[in-house]
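no rush on this but wanted to send it before i forget. what follows is a protein written twice so to speak, once as letters and once as C-alpha cells for the fold. mainly i need to know what kind of three dimensional shape the backbone takes. thanks a lot i owe you, the record is right below.
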Amino acid sequence: MSNYATVQSALLTVIRLLTSTWTSANSKEYDYRIMDAGVDRFLVLDVGESPTIQSGAGFVMREWEVIIDLGYRVSGNEVDAKTSFITDRDALIAHLEKYPTLNGTANVQEVRINVIGDVIPVPVDLENNRETVAYFWQELRVSVVVNYAITGGEY
C-alpha cells in the first residue's frame, strides 16, 4: 500500500532528481519558511484534497493529491524573472512526466500534473511610488493514483 506520506516523499525525491534546479536547500515539505531563506527559487509540497477512493473485490484504488507551490524571487528585471520562472516550471512538469510511477514507488499507477491558474506576481513595498514584485508564484496539483490488493476482513 502507498499511503499519502509515501507518495509525497517519493514525489519530492523525483523532483530532486532534477538536481540543476531543485535541491534540499530550495525544496521542502510543508515548510514555507523557505521563502525567507534567501534562495532564488523555492518549492513547497503540501497536502491536497482528500483522496478519491474506489474499491472492488480484493482491491482499493486511491487518488492522492499533492500541492506543489512554486515560487521565484525577483531580483532585477521582472520580465526576465517571469520567463525564468515559466522555464523552470515547464522543465519540472516535463521531468515529472518521465516518472509516471514516481520511479517505481509501490502500487503507483499514474501521475497527473495540473497547473492551477496563472503565474501570480506577489508585490512588496512601494518603490518610487510603484509596487515592485517580490516573487512569482504558481500552484501545481499532482494527482497520484495508487492501486493495491487487500486481504483479510471480508476478502
